[in-house]
Write a structure and sequence with these properties.
10 strands
Length: 131
């Protein structure tokens, strides 16, 4: 059975693991999910991630980051959905929590944060927001 929205599934698995106070979460691997995990690591929202293989299937193992018993990630939201794609120019890229969060943007240069997209002056599809 195919999944309709794998990015929403990725964010939901992360959200559920945070609420259950898990140290790691395993998510089925795709290039887009690995790109989002890379952005989360670069922006210090997660400790690390790695690709693991179990029963012939590849998974993304994400190590969540905690500070004083609370997860660093407070919220995850899918912005562009399969039914309603959200494309924006670089001038209108969203600021998540007034700059305290990060929006992941899919551009011609690959997956980057909204701050990097503004600096490069390229727009794209706003995939998700993390704060």
């Amino acid at each position: 059975m195919s999944m309709t929205d794998p990015i929403a599934d990725f964010l939901t698995r992360m959200r559920n693991a945070i609420k259950a106070e898990k140290k790691t979460v395993d998510i089925p691997l795709s290039k887009m999910k690995a790109g989002i995990a890379d952005i989360l690591k670069r922006t210090s929202y997660i400790t690390d991630y790695s690709v693991v293989e179990n029963d012939g299937k590849k998974y993304l193992s994400v190590k969540l980051k905690y500070n004083n018993g609370r997860c660093v990630i407070e919220g995850l939201r899918r912005v562009s959905k399969p039914g309603i794609r959200r494309y924006v120019k670089y001038e209108k890229l969203p600021r998540v929590r007034n700059g305290l969060g990060v929006a992941v943007v899919s551009t011609s240069k690959g997956l980057i944060t909204e701050k990097e997209a503004r600096k490069l002056q390229i727009g794209g599809e706003v995939v998700c927001a993390i704060w």
